[in-house]
Amino acid sequence: MTEDQFRKRWDTEKPVYQAWADFIKHNIEQALAASIAPTTLDYFLKIPVKPRLKLESTLIDKAFHRKQYQNPYDDVQDKVGMRFVVLLTSDIKKVCQVIESEESKKFWVFSRDRDYEIERLAKPLEFTYQSVHFVLKATAGNVFGGINILEHTPCEVQIRTLLQHAHSELTHDTIYKPKTTAQPGVKRTVAKSMALIEATDEFFEKAMQDIEEALKPQNDILNLLKKIYTDNVGTGVGDEQSNQLLTDTYIDLLQAPDVGEKISKFLEEKSFIYKRVNERRASKHLFSQPGILLSYYLASKNPAQTRGLWPFEIDDLALIFSDLGDRMPD
To answer: What is the C-alpha to C-alpha distance for residues 186 and 168, in angstroms, rounded to an integer?
Structure first.
């Protein structure tokens, strides 16, 4: 194949490659959103995913000059690609699971071109570039945006942590400059930065585990409240940070191991609360949150402390005491 033939074929097939990448992005994000709920995709992905076609000049340079492939057009697997950037190394696995799932196999055949975990095991004393690279090749019959995707059309998908991405951005321009990167000083500096990133990734993972463990009692209560709210008030229950603020404010009053049972029993006995909450949920924000049910429990069992520590508008608390038929403490 000549360079001119390459250009003509690429010009014809560019819309197919773009449609294939858009199809992959759509399907991965859709499956990922379901798997990480209630975490939102906007929070989980630290950089928006943007499928990008390689420039024609870049493809020619790689296919005919830097690599000199035997089959220049077909051997270049990254004519289009995208990058998923997440916070933690454990988050990388969540994206990989979506790509490798049985559901996804009807859309593509995948291969892992790079896997940082395998590379670490193979060369434990080296600290080098880290990332997971997949090549996804279309199966027959895929259509997106009215465009038929040619079978075997490839797309590169990279998955990195935010720190790995920063390192890659820093060193990208020197990848194809062997005389520069071969210098011992340059190699050592890059290796040190990679070692620091790997250690920081591990600290991030440990910190997240510690945070999740510390928040477990509060999250258990909130999950219980969400279920009770959904079952007795209605769907569309809120999930705003005011719920965490409420449980954090009153955590000292919620330490009993059977506190969940006590809250459930209280609400069962005071079932009129659900009607009051439902009447106000559309016009008063706090009443659309599951934490409002905890507020009734606290106001009934610990009125003085509930009043003294109340972190929101006092008018909402006054309504709660009124519904309970109690006088709000001064």
So the answer is: 15
The domain total for the chain is: 2
42 to 110, 157, 240: CA distances (angstroms): 25, 19, 15
Q: What is the pLDDT of residues 80-107, one digit of tens each?
A: 999 999 998 899 999 999 999 999 999 9
What 3-state DSSP class applies to 236?
coil
Q: Structure pTM?
A: 0.70
Q: What is the pLDDT of residue 124?
A: 44
Statement to judge: residues 62 and 161 lie in one domain = yes
Judgement on whether residues 235 and 105 belong to the same structural domain of the protein: no
The torsion of the CA quartet 295, 298, 301, 305, rounded to 10 degrees, works out to -130
- Nearest of 115, 105, 196, 128 to residue 159 by alpha carbon: 115
In 3D space, the residue among 101, 10, 23 whose CA is nearest the CA of residue 63 turns out to be 10
| 209 lies in some domain | no
- C-alpha–C-alpha distance, residues 39 and 27, integer Å: 18
CATH of the domain at 27: 3.30.460.10
What is the residue range of 249's domain? Answer: 216-324
Instruction: Examine the fold and report which residue of 176, 202, 236 is the final residue of a domain before the chain moves on.
Output: 176
Measured CA to CA, the distance from residue 201 to residue 193 in angstroms comes to 12
Q: Which of 20-24, 56-60, 65-69, 189-193 has the highest mean pLDDT?
A: 20-24
Looking at the chain, the number of H-run helices and the number of E-run strands are 15, 7
Q: What is the DSSP string of 96-141?
A: HHHHTSTTGGGTEEEEEEEEHHHHHHHSTT------EEEEEEEPTT
Whether 96 and 233 map to the same domain: the answer is: no
Give yes or no: residues 166 and 288 share one domain: no
- 32 versus 255: the higher-pLDDT residue is 32
Considering the domain architecture, whether residues 250 and 165 belong to the same structural domain is answered as no
Question: Is it true that the peptide bond before 51 is cis, omega within 30 degrees of 0?
Answer: no
Distance spanning both ends of the chain, measured CA to CA: 86
The verdict on 233 and 131 lying in the same domain is no
